[in-house]
Amino acid sequence: MRSVVIEWTEVSSHCVVVNVLAGFDPEVVALGDALALEDGGFLGTVREGIEARFVGCA
Questions:
Q1: Cα separation of 58 and 6, whole Å?
Q2: What DSSP character marks residue 31?
Q3: Mean pLDDT throughout 40-50?
Q4: DSSP state of 40
Q5: Is the per-residue pLDDT at 7 higher than 70?
Q6: What's CA 37's distance to the chain center, in Å?
Q7: Which helix (H) or strand (E) holds 33?
Q8: d(Cα 58, Cα 44) in Å, to the nearest integer?
Q9: What is the mean pLDDT of the chain?
Q10: Which of 7, 14, 22, 55 has a CA between 20 and 30 Å from the CA of residue 46?
Q11: Computed from CA positions of residues 49, 46, 7, 4, in that sequence, does the dihedral angle turn out positive or negative?
Q12: Are 47 and 6 in contact (CB under 8 A)?
């Protein structure tokens, strides 16, 4: 029996609608940090770059 390492990257998609103040400028707000706590709006996940290799092989 042999062991195989399987690696991949998951890319998730989200969409939310929020109310902002009239002077809101998305260019000066760290949206990644601001949305980190948002628990709604999940659309799905895509797995990319799936690679498999035997353990011990480069």
A1: 13
A2: H
A3: 87
A4: -
A5: yes
A6: 13
A7: helix 31-34
A8: 32
A9: 84
A10: 55
A11: negative
A12: no
pTM for this structure?
0.55
Residue 45 to residue 47: CA distance in whole angstroms = 7
Higher pLDDT, 13 or 40: 13
Beta bridge partners of 26: none
7, β-bridge pairs: 51
Q: Each residue of 22-41: b (16+ CB within 10 Å) or e?
A: eeeeeeeeeeeeeeeeeeee
Q: Report whether 58 contacts 10 (CB < 8 A).
A: no
Residue found under tokens 């940090």 = 33
Q: Find out whether 16 and 41 touch, Cβ atoms under 8 Å.
A: yes
Task: Compute the CA torsion angle 35, 42, 45, 58 (nearest 10 deg).
Answer: 30
- The per-residue pLDDT for range 28-39, each reduced to its tens digit, is 887 776 676 556
